[in-house]
Specification:
By secondary structure, the protein is an alpha/beta fold. It is about 50% helix and about 20% strand. The protein is built from 14 helices and 13 strands. The chain has a six-stranded mixed beta sheet with strand order 2-3-6-8-10-13, sandwiched between helices. A four-stranded mixed beta sheet has the order 7-9-11-12. The longest helix is centred in the middle third of the chain and has 19 residues, at about 105-120.
Length: about 300
Amino acid sequence: MNAIVDIRRFSAAQRTQVETRVDPEFGVYWAFMNPKPRACITSELLGDLQAVVDALSIDGGLVAHDGHTHQIRYGVIASRTPQIFNLGGDLELFRNAIGAQDRNALLRYGERCVDVLLPWHQNCGGQITTLALVQGEALGGGFEGALSASVLVAEESSRMGFPEILFNLFPGMGAYSFLSRKVGRQAAERIITSGTVYSARELYDMGVVDVITPDGTGEAAVYSYIRKHAKQGNGRRAFERARGEVETLTRDEMIRVLTVWVDAALKLEERDLRMMERLVRAQQNRAVNDNTVRTANIFPLQAMGSGD
């Protein structure tokens, strides 16, 4: 047997980007994103999330914590940033790579995203049930991250969407693969190409959000779901594996879509890059007043034709 993962060592080494917590009673492994300097998917955050995925994939979800070995049945990704789940890909990295026409940099970043999101979507080898708890805004790659989980829990005031179309691109690291399997091709295309930032209630009505709960009750809603799920845990987890067999998502599919995204990104024009820079500034200056700056209000779809 492989060495059991000691979650305390992981937490101490990686606490600047991801904070972890184990609940032995319910077999829950919590991973709270805390990216710096911006609430986006930095390269450092990707490394920490990869460690989370690896920890839950080794030895069928067995982890060491406080001198004991615990069987993890549920993995939850959440956020420590108030009112923000995650604002998406590292647009500054994208802007610099596109400006330098550095295809390899974009591919490397995208592949790292795929190698985190795909195993999370696959429930870390089928050993656990993955959940995402969205409390606030999940945009672009942040929304992709939430969609990769088997169960998406969102508080009522949360908002999610894909603003990439504002700078003439599309989300290329899993959005269409996840959404089309969950709500169908037409709904997936509408969500991705509209540029709309949807409310949690709208996405719940579409079937994108699985559990909606009042603000401030997100963790309680996760535990409520887990208690219900655990009553038939063997059967439900087997069904999740069967669903994965029927709706198989492969790394090859995700990399092929990623390659399309990279090729499109390298064709962006100066006007598109200026719009991306505006979004970069929004990521950098996200904390205004009560930390609630609505991206949809700052970057309306009309901006695409503004000549800015």
